[in-house]
Design a protein that fits this description.
The chain is an alpha/beta fold. The chain has six helices and eight strands.
Length: 221
Amino acid sequence: MPDITLTAADGHTLSAYVTGPEDARRALVLAQEIFGVNRHMRNQADRFAAEGFRVIVPALFDRAERGVALGYDAPDVARGRELRGRIDPGLTLLDILAAAAALPPGIPRGIVGYCWGGTVAWHAATRSHAFRAASAWYGGGIAAARHEVPNCPVQMHFGETDASIPLSDVEAIRAAQPGVEIYVYPGAGHGFGCDERGSYSAPDAKLAQQRTLDFLRRHLT
């Protein structure tokens, strides 16, 4: 399916990948890692689509550079961080809301985010009322915003050995948000859910995905 073009509230246009049945009963926005709407993000969207969700993946890097689809080696990590640093979080939220608005009307919407997108998913839950559920995978910026109040149920997934998100951050989030489902995966590192990264852990990715699906089906009714 070809990408579509979205228009955010400030007039910015951005690309988005869309997949899944048009007559779905549930819909999702997927928020990207710092690697753009690459093959992994499209594959993740297709996995949710196979479970019956209508899914949209907005190209959040379009505000800095269009058509970004990076790999996972060190130069790409540095490039992704540089691009992320050029984008205001408030504008990213506008792009997420534009994606939500492009989903079929009248059905419940959720958001799932990975890496940078995990933090974006948390912001979407606390700074908007667009979603009925949010699942955040290893979002490194969540701890800094842990006292914000979510407007929908939230679930979080962290790797025990994530070098960029210490367990002290996870425990600080847990203390600030006792109503949030938080899972820590023993021995797992950052990006354990991405099958194109060296840190990929198939058992943990499978478990986190099933927990995410169960959570979304429970709340997107």
